[in-house]
Write a structure and sequence with these properties.
It is built from ten helices and ten strands. The chain is an alpha/beta fold.
């Protein structure tokens, strides 16, 4: 029987919501058993751990960065502590690691090495928005970010609309917060009036807003400000 450590997938808050509102106490207990972290962003990870109130000095912890600038060729080095019997946690910048965030490749390597992988409970913008949308929760597809170039983005939006109607499948996607208004405008000008759109903003925060309307009704909306706010869009 091996004596490998355990790899924990640790969700973090989606924004500045009180940690006790969205993260189980059990997660915080486990944080005190972990000395090594693979993280999307070290600064964000340190801030979350401090907010969680871990008892260990943060400067004594080891951090490996697995964000956009990280090379997957380094991953065998990153899991070395696990092979030596130390527990490791994966933290993304928001929500659940490995789901539309870095972490999946490291988890795949851990599975290959027969290292125990434990996903912890926590907030996921994908599931929370789907729950509140009223759309099909048995068949859905998350597309991440759509193309930046407007013509390609509009074509993709029309493709998602076709998929939603043809497959009866909910289509989910996100955008960088400062581009939310631009993609929202494209949605309203390119999709059919009877198509249903859910917009979920600031999930789990005190400023949270979640609305599902037809495109026709969305065109009458004048008060919702999406600029620089975390947002997820759903077509159903």
């Amino acid at each position: 029987m091996n004596k490998f450590g355990t790899l924990y997938l640790i969700p973090i808050t989606l924004g500045e919501s009180p940690i006790n509102n969205v993260i189980p106490e059990y997660n915080n207990v486990l944080l005190n058993e972990i000395d090594v972290y693979a993280v999307e962003n070290i600064k964000t990870a340190r801030r979350f751990l401090k907010k969680a109130g871990i008892q260990k000095p943060i400067e004594d912890l080891t951090f490996f960065e697995i964000g956009k600038r990280s090379e997957s060729s380094n991953y065998p080095t990153f899991i070395k502590p696990l092979l030596e019997g130390k527990n490791m946690g994966i933290l993304s910048e928001a929500g659940c690691p490995g789901v539309a965030d870095p972490g999946a490749e490291l988890v795949a390597l851990a599975q290959e090495k027969k290292i125990k992988v434990v996903p912890l409970v926590g907030p996921s913008s994908i599931l929370l928005s789907l729950m509140a949308s009223g759309f099909n929760g048995q068949s859905f597809c998350f597309h991440g970010y759509l193309p930046i170039e407007q013509k390609q983005r509009v074509n993709k939006l029309k493709e998602l609309e076709r998929n939603a109607f043809r497959e009866k499948q909910t289509q989910l996607f996100i955008e960088t917060p400062f581009r939310n208004q631009a993609i929202f405008k494209d949605i309203l000008t390119s999709l059919n009036n009877n198509t249903k759109l859910c917009v979920a903003v600031d999930l789990t925060l005190f400023t949270e807003e979640i609305y599902t309307k037809s495109i026709e009704d969305w065109k009458k909306e004048t008060k919702l400000d999406l600029n620089k706010r975390p947002c997820i869009f759903l077509i159903g």
